[in-house]
Amino acid sequence: MNTVTVSGIEKTFGTVRALRGLNVEFPEGPVGLLGPNGAGKSTLLKVLLGLLTPDSGTAQVLGLDVTADPTEVRRLVGYMPEMDAFLPGLTGAEAVRFAGVMCGLPAGHAQRRAHEILYYVGLGEARFRRAEQYSTGMRQRLRLAQALVHDPQLVFLDEPTNGLDPAGRDEILELIRDLTRKHRKSVILCSHLLFDVESVCDNVVVLRSGQVALQGTIADVKKLERGTYRVRVLGDRDAFIGAIEREGAAVVDRTGETLSIRVPDGADAKLVFRAAAASKVVVRELSTMERNLEGAFLRAMADGDAAAAAATAKGTAR
Hints:
By secondary structure, this protein is an alpha/beta fold. 40% of the residues lie in helices and 27% in strands. Helix 3 crosses helix 4 (107-120) and helix 3 packs parallel to helix 5.
C-alpha cells in the first residue's frame, strides 16, 4: 500500500519549474527522498502538506486529496521542518503542546502528550527550559517532538540531522529507526546525506530537476550500480579527465581530490589505467563504488545530465 501518490504535479515559481509533471508513489515504511539542491524535494513536501497549491496534477496522502482537504492531511501527518518552528518565549513543553493543539488535540491531551514525547526524544529533563536556549541538537529533537505529538500515521522529516555532530546524528537516526521498526510509522526522510537514508530507509526516491531520476528499494537500486570508481591521480588532473572522457567514461563528481568516474557498460578499471598512461599521470587510489547508494545516486545524476545535453543538442540541430 502507498502512503503518497503523486500524478502529473507541476509547480512553477516565476520562470523556474520546480516540479515537472512529477509522477511518483511512496510505499509504507521508511522512504528516503534524495536529490541535489533545487531538485524539488522541499517543494514536493510542501505540496503534499497543502502548503503550496500545484499548478496542475493531483496528489493523495493517506488516501486524501491534498488540494481538496489539506487540513485533514495535516491532522494525520507529522512534519519536521528544516528550520525552527516555535514561538519565542515558550518552553519546550509549551512549544510541543502548542503544536499538538494546532493539530487538533484537546488542550489537556496535548499537554500530556507533550511531556510523553519530550521524554521519548530525550528532552524530558529540559522540557521546562525556554526553547531558544536549546542547543542545535536539542532543537532538532524539539522539532521531532512537535512532529510526533499528535501520533501521526506518516511523518515528513526535512533534513533531520542537519548541523549535528556525529554522535547527535547517530542518536536522531536511532530515533527514526525506532519510529519505523517498533512503532510502525511510515516516514519520508528528505535529506542530502546518503548515509542517513541508506542506514534507516527501505526505499528511496531520487529527484532531479523536478522529476524522478531513480526509485525503488535500496537493495535493488544498489544492484543497478556497476562500473563506477573513485580515482585519485598524481599529475595533470585535467589531462587525465580529458583522456578518461575520450575513452567514453563520465566524470560524475570532480569536487575535491578524488574523482568519481563511471565507465561505459562492459568496460572495467583497465580503462582508467589506459587514460592514466595516455595523460602521463600516476593512479594513487582506485576503489569501486559498486553496490553503493552513492554510486547509484551519482549515476542517476550523470544520466540526467547526459539526457539534458542530448535534448539541448537535438533542439539546437532543429
